[in-house]
């Protein structure tokens, strides 16, 4: 579903991604973790080209993201959930969800409205359709953000540290939504520090350090017996 | 245009001095400097009045500031033209009238800059001063104002550039500044108004670009402390 | 002070009509110049976002020229300078609505447009990057993202500085009296030279300016409040 082929990225002289070669299968739930500065956020942001790469190819569903095709079209099939939610503050929740499908002509207005309501029910916020983002808590905003991404019926969902900006008591409500998505077979890539989520739901864990994927393993194996010294240190640090 | 410049540069620079009052570009910059300098203490007083909790200071200061914000400068100048001779008992020259109007006008704008500067300081500064036993005024004088005034230097320098532009209104009451000098040149040449006034515009343009450059340098050397003007 | 107040003297001889006419002229100039300033300012702001180098330099030059040269000088340049080099046919057409009115309005409109474009640019740049990223991630192209997400928010943020610009524009119309246009200040001066009741007529003119200024400031504050939304997360 997602293929990284010899992907390298520089910020000026600084090498952020170092010759990444990896694949994500359809239906796979992938968690990417690592110390800060390891390149994990950069990696996920190159998938829908929020950050450009200088070398290599990234293929999503067979299409080269950096090739000739319409980038906007490709992006509309990839859902992206941001650490800082990035809901549109000048629109209410329903409008946030409806705007893209209607504007990009994926659905008619009434169909989009029904679809939006169904998604809001699904994330537990059906009663907040008329609210504005500023009136919602962080956890609620992030659930709306997930619904907004789902409104475009994407084939892949990317999560960039979705719970890192939330107060601890709101982390769970977001993780529950993500777990239900995984259970339905959505292809998901999650950059996160929530190791319990990885343990419960992920099919694979990628551990990154200094721009390279240092380990790729199923979560049971990774958490019990990490292969590399760096991974072991990381796991020890986050367990204090 | 170069010809007009080379023929008339002295008039544009200093007006009719020494055969008349100082004029031209020198008068423009001098008038702006003097007015802003004298407006400064007024600005500080008005700012303190605006943040005062004593109504007797707050209302007059607020009234002055709203008056200035609501009234065109040129009306201020006409008011000064009318009032000053009555106050002083003698006729008053155009330049003094202009300066008086500018001092009040700029004083009000400076007071808004200074007020923002004071309010931008963390409340902890005043609290710390009072906790040490200093009075409100002492804290203002020793702790708050020095910091606020320093932080707002770039904005005040920008206000100087505005003042330079405002001196051009002296033209309307025949003050011998740069615009008036250019008009004199135009009256002499008669057939080249476009060139004369373009030259005038370019002179202000270059002057203010240089001043803006100085402001940016000062800002950079201050570590980029920028204050929002009112 | 040797002065006896006599407001009654202002009521005769068509003076009220003159003042009201001046006020009307001031308001007409304000509205027309504002439309010019806002339309041109928005266009310049959007063009700058395209990031085409030579175009950016041109716009920066336009803005610098109009901001660094005094408003009065712009008016003089247009009325005395440009009018002198414009072909006679165009001047005749302009004189139908009045050369003073036309050139002063154009000058004030252009200068204000420079400030408006910078205020809009600041507002656009104040929108967090994440907003554009979120819009593009959904599949919107650049123009769609600007139209639906960025510009609506930018306009709301720019209401306070734009209110300020409107107020300044309104006050700047008084400069047109320097080229002989009988707007509010000009009308005041006419009546002053006819009646010598300087205080009374200046008082009336001042009250009118203050009233409208205050209205503008209040309207701006109301508008700002109405379109405000909470941007911070609870």
Explain the layout of strands and helices.
The complex is a heterotrimer of chains A (about 240), B (about 230) and C (about 230).
Chain A: E1 2-11, E2 14-24, E3 29-33, H1 40-47, E4 55-60, E5 63-64, H2 71-75, E6 78-81, H3 93-103, H4 109-122, H5 138-150, E7 156-160, H6 168-183, E8 187-191, H7 195-201, E9 204-209, E10 212-217, H8 219-224, H9 229-239
Parallel strand pairs in A: 3-8, 3-9, 6-7, 7-8
Antiparallel strand pairs in A: 1-2, 1-4, 4-5, 9-10
Helix pairs in contact in A: 3-4, 3-5, 4-5, 5-6
Chain B: H1 2-14, H2 24-51, H3 55-70, H4 73-88, H5 94-120, H6 123-131, H7 136-151, H8 153-166, H9 178-189, H10 193-221
Helix pairs in contact in B: 1-2, 1-9, 2-3, 2-5, 2-8, 2-9, 3-5, 4-5, 5-7, 5-8, 6-7, 8-10, 9-10
Chain C: H1 15-49, H2 53-68, H3 71-85, H4 88-97, H5 99-126, H6 129-137, H7 142-157, H8 159-172, H9 184-195, H10 198-227
Short description:
The complex is a heterotrimer of chains A (240), B (230) and C (234). Chain A has 240 residues and is an alpha/beta fold.
């Amino acid at each position: 579903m997602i293929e990284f082929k010899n992907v390298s990225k520089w910020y000026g002289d600084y090498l952020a991604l170092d010759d990444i070669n990896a694949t994500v299968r359809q239906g796979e739930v992938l968690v990417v973790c690592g110390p800060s500065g390891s390149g994990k956020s950069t990696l996920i942001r190159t998938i829908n080209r929020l950050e450009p790469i200088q070398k290599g190819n990234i293929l999503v569903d067979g299409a080269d993201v950096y090739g000739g095709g319409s980038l906007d079209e490709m992006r509309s099939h990839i859902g992206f959930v941001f650490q800082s939610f990035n809901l549109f503050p000048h629109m209410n929740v329903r409008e946030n969800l409806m705007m893209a499908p209607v504007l990009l002509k994926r659905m008619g207005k009434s169909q989009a409205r029904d679809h939006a309501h169904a998604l809001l029910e699904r994330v537990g916020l059906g009663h907040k359709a008329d609210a504005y983002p500023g009136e919602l808590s962080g956890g609620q905003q992030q659930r709306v953000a997930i619904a907004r991404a789902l409104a475009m019926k994407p084939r892949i969902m990317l999560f960039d540290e979705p719970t890192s900006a939330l107060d601890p008591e709101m982390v769970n409500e977001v993780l529950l939504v993500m777990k239900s998505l995984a259970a339905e077979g959505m292809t998901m890539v999650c950059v996160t520090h929530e190791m319990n989520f990885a343990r419960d739901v992920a099919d694979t864990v990628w551990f990154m350090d200094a721009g390279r994927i240092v380990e790729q393993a199923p979560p049971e194996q990774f958490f019990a017996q990490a292969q590399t010294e760096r991974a072991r240190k990381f796991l020890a640090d986050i367990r204090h | 245009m170069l010809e007009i410049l080379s023929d008339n540069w002295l008039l544009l620079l200093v007006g009719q001095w020494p055969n008349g009052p100082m004029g031209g570009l020198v008068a423009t910059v001098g008038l702006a400097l003097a007015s802003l300098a004298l407006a400064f203490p007024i600005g500080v007083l008005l700012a303190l009045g605006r943040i005062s909790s004593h109504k007797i200071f707050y209302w007059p200061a607020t009234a002055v500031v709203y008056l200035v914000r609501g009234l065109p400068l040129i009306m201020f100048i006409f008011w000064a033209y009318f009032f000053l001779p009555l106050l002083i008992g003698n006729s008053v020259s155009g330049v003094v009238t202009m300066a008086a109007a500018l001092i009040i006008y700029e004083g009000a704008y400076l007071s808004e800059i200074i007020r923002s500067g004071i309010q931008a300081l963390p409340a902890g500064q005043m609290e710390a001063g009072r906790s040490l036993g200093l009075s409100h005024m002492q804290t203002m004088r020793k702790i708050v104002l020095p910091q606020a005034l320093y932080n707002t230097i770039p904005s005040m320098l920008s206000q100087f550039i505005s003042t330079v532009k405002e001196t051009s209104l002296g033209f309307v009451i025949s003050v011998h500044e740069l615009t008036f000098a250019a008009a004199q040149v135009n009256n002499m040449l008669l057939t080249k108004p476009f060139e004369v006034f373009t030259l005038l515009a370019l002179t202000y343009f270059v002057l203010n670009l240089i001043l803006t450059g100085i402001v940016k340098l000062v800002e950079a050397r201050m570590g980029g402390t920028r204050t929002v003007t009112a | 002070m040797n002065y006896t107040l006599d407001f009654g003297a202002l009521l005769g001889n068509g003076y009220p009509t003159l003042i009201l006419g001046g006020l009307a002229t001031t308001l007409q100039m304000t509205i027309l110049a504002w439309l010019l300033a806002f339309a041109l300012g928005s266009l310049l702001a959007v063009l700058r976002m395209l990031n085409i180098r030579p175009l950016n330099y041109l716009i920066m030059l336009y803005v610098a020229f109009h901001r660094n040269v005094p408003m009065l000088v712009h008016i003089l340049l247009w009325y005395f300078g440009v009018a002198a080099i414009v072909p006679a046919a165009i001047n005749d057409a302009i004189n139908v609505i009045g050369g003073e009115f036309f050139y002063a309005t154009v000058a004030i409109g252009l200068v204000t447009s420079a400030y408006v474009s910078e205020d809009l640019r600041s507002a656009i740049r104040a929108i967090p990057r994440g907003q554009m990223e979120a819009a593009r991630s959904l599949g919107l192209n650049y123009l769609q993202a600007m139209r639906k997400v960025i510009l609506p928010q930018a306009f709301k943020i720019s209401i306070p500085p734009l209110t300020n610009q409107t107020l300044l524009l309104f006050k700047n119309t008084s400069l047109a009296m320097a080229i002989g246009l009988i707007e509010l200040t000009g009308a005041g001066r006419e009546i002053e030279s006819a009646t010598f009741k300087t205080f009374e007529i200046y008082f009336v003119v001042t009250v009118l300016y203050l009233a409208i200024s205050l209205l503008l400031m209040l309207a701006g504050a109301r508008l700002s409040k109405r379109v405000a939304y909470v941007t911070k997360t609870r």
